[in-house]
Amino acid sequence: MKKSEFKIDQKVWFLEPWSKMPKCATIVAFGTIKPDKVYPFERKTATLHWLDGGTNTMLVEDLYSSQEELLQVESKKSRKRIE
Asked: DSSP 3-state helix, strand, coil percentages of the chain (rounded to 5)?
């Protein structure tokens, strides 16, 4: 699934920012961060409700439709860093 096809109430996976562990959440809203000096382009965000409680907002580019997809991408990134 393309990241632009995510929908409200869809479950998504991401790396929890502090522990770097996979987490699951439900999308409750979308937003946009306006361009600025550092990022001269709009960035799409999703407000998430975590399945184990709490909410946060993340960039849509950091979300995945399944835990398997998330782990595959992170594994590829790790291999590239090691090489």
From this structure: 25, 35, 35
